[in-house]
Design goal:
The protein has about 300 residues and is mainly β. It folds into two domains: about 120 residues, Thrombin, subunit H (Beta Barrel), CATH 2.40.10; about 150 residues, Roll (Mannose-Binding Protein A, Chain A), CATH 3.10.100. It is about 15% helix and about 35% strand. It has four helices and 19 strands. Strands 2-3-6-5-4-7 form a six-stranded antiparallel barrel. It has a four-stranded antiparallel sheet with strand order 8-11-19-12. A hairpin with a 5-residue loop joins β4 and β5.
Length: about 300
């Protein structure tokens, strides 16, 4: 889930409106946190947001979308940017990582790249069991938790004027090197599935890019003994886009594309992810990695 590392405070009126709308969806007595996501497509009156059920969104929820406004000084010079409420969306359809809504009220029509804000319940679950950490020798273990990343130039996140984003994953195992032979998205998905694995997800690719694309320091005594931990393994990333994520077919009711993500690259520890909205994208041959859960 892509959210800004810094909290941008909405107006009191907008916050109260969002809280009131969300309160009609969630149970009482629950603590909420404000979450940000992005509009990634607007087509046929439908507005696509890059957050879904995994991010606390449910049908009927209302969320505010914002325009970017310049802040200027008394001398007319531009000092920076802020965000002003531009309208309200009501969510109608939700899958795991994407939701689709319609404009409920607007001052400006929504466009791709705008941020949205909504309230999600803060988790109060019991502490998780001890994390499993074993991965096959050809795969890298990546621990669960939050991470911060700066998106690369190809990333759709670059539509928003921000330098850092914050996201979170569970623990996972990832192929250290891409699988041999380029394949289409479906071929890559089926190849991983046949091995009892899955095509690595967007956030998994981002996290591995940030945390495992370069060799961290190994203590001299360990290096001399040839016993550097496996965590020092270098991931075989480069600037080429690699398939990732899962795909939802075009909505039969509207014909509109409903997708999670297409592919990601990693250069200089800056992940760049692109969404492929059109059917012809799916047949392009690209590299890919398989992921699995640790044992």
């Amino acid at each position: 889930m892509a959210v800004f590392a810094c909290l941008i405070v909405a107006s009191a009126a907008a916050r109260a409106q969002a809280a009131a709308a969300t309160a009609t969806i969630w149970a009482t007595g629950v603590e909420y946190i404000e979450v940000q996501a992005h509009i990634v497509n607007v087509a046929g009156g439908a507005v696509y947001v890059d957050a879904g059920g995994d991010n606390g969104i449910v049908p009927g929820m209302e969320m505010t979308y914002y325009e970017t406004v310049d802040i200027t000084g008394l001398d007319g010079n531009r000092l920076g940017q802020d965000y002003a409420p531009a309208g309200v969306l009501r969510i109608e359809r939700v899958d795991e990582a994407m939701s689709v809504g319609k404009v409920e009220d607007s001052r400006l029509e929504p466009v791709r790249g705008m941020i949205v804000k909504y309230l999600a319940p803060k988790s109060s679950a019991a502490p998780p069991a001890a994390e499993k950490t074993h991965c096959p020798d050809s795969m890298q273990f990546v621990a669960s938790g939050t991470f911060v990343y700066s998106p690369g130039a190809l990333s759709r996140d670059s539509f928003v004027d921000a330098q850092e984003f914050k996201s979170e994953t569970g623990s996972f195992c990832m192929d250290i090197e891409p699988q041999k032979g380029n394949k289409s998205w479906r071929e890559a998905r089926d190849f991983c599935g046949a091995q009892g694995k899955r095509l690595c997800g967007r956030e998994e690719m981002r996290k591995a890019c940030v945390q495992n694309s370069r060799r961290p320091a190994c203590p001299p005594e360990q290096a001399k003994a040839g016993s550097c931990p496996r965590g020092n393994a270098v991931m075989g990333f480069d600037s080429a886009l690699e398939w990732c994520g899962s795909w939802v077919e075009d909505d039969p009711a509207t014909g509109a594309p409903v997708a999670k993500t297409g592919s990601c690259s990693c250069t200089g520890m800056r992940p760049a992810c692109a969404v492929c909205y059109y059917p012809e994208c799916r047949g392009i041959s690209k590299k890919f990695r398989c992921c699995s859960n640790p044992e």
